[in-house]
Amino acid sequence: NLFERGVTRSWANSSSRTKCTPFTRAHIANFKGFQTAVLAQAVVGGGHERALSQPALVIQSGLDVRRGPDGMAAGYSTGLMMEETPWFIRQRMLPSLEVLRRRDPERKLAGITEALIDKRPGTLSGIPDFLVGALREMLDGPRSAEVRAALRGVDLYAWSGASLGPHRALLNEVLAPDCAFFDAVSATEGPLGIQAERPGLYRLAYEHVLPLFVAKQDADDRRLAHELEVDRLYRVYTTNFAGFAGYDTGDIIRVVSQSPLRFELVPRDINPDLVAAMLGGATDFCIFKDPYDGELSILAEVDEVPTHEALTMIARALEAPRARAQLLPEGALSRAL
User: Fold this and answer.
1) Beta strand 211-215 with 222-223: parallel, antiparallel or unpaired?
2) pTM, rounded to two decimals
3) Among the listed residues 244, 326, 247, the one whose alpha carbon sits nearest the alpha carbon of residue 279
4) Strand, helix or coil at 57?
5) pLDDT in tens, 246-266
6) Are strands 156-159 and 65-67 parallel, antiparallel or unpaired?
7) Which terminus of the chain has a lower count of CB atoms within 10 Å, N or C?
8) DSSP category for residue 227
């Protein structure tokens, strides 16, 4: 369905598998502290005072929460944290958790559309791929004019880590002209960083866990935050305070400065912004790598066939022998079921 599709997520390198991370008390406490810190920075540091009073529309998937044999909650962090989130955040969230947990994509989208039009939120939140896919569906639906009018009142968009890539063009078009973009990086395994002095630069966001870092090129080189070296790449693990167990977030950072600690996220496979540019300004794209011959098949929302040089560069970046592209009209990928 449009919230769990495998196509437009491909360029953002999101996992297509259902994550089932167990949540300890420290894990939950860390997420709650992260939510509070993000809101505080957006309000105090960013000057978005309206975020304290205006409704926030969440467009999200992966809300299933299970219980293991020992009773411990397991699943995607979003579903659990929407139950555990502090009351002053929860009271502003739209739509209801019941709507977001609907398995029927059309009923789910209808509930989100109704909340957007009726409550006129000032804040929008959600992973770019899921959010933009839903927005395109609503903008093409029977209440398109009402949806567009409601979106023009959104002056703050908060999301988690994934590059906006080619999605920024649509967001700039439909959201308020002075809409602010606020990036806080979080995975199911744990929160990672909060936007610092400039877009794409982050500071650590841990309070109740001990972050560990493993050098990208040397698995035996394991360090704490104060031991990181500038310009080196590290894999990120979140643990409890004792450090007995660690969650591999799959994220890699490049250290920009040590004191204060600032870092950038390294794209897991490809840089989506760069690839979009190489494809001639594609509004969206996905890439499939054949597991047998390694050839890349690219579906791109672009007017002209990418140059041979561009396809060669993309193939080289993904260690593929060659790449071929198929053109699609704008919006085709985000509407794919």
Assistant:
1) antiparallel
2) 0.64
3) 326
4) strand
5) 667 778 899 999 999 999 987
6) unpaired
7) C
8) G
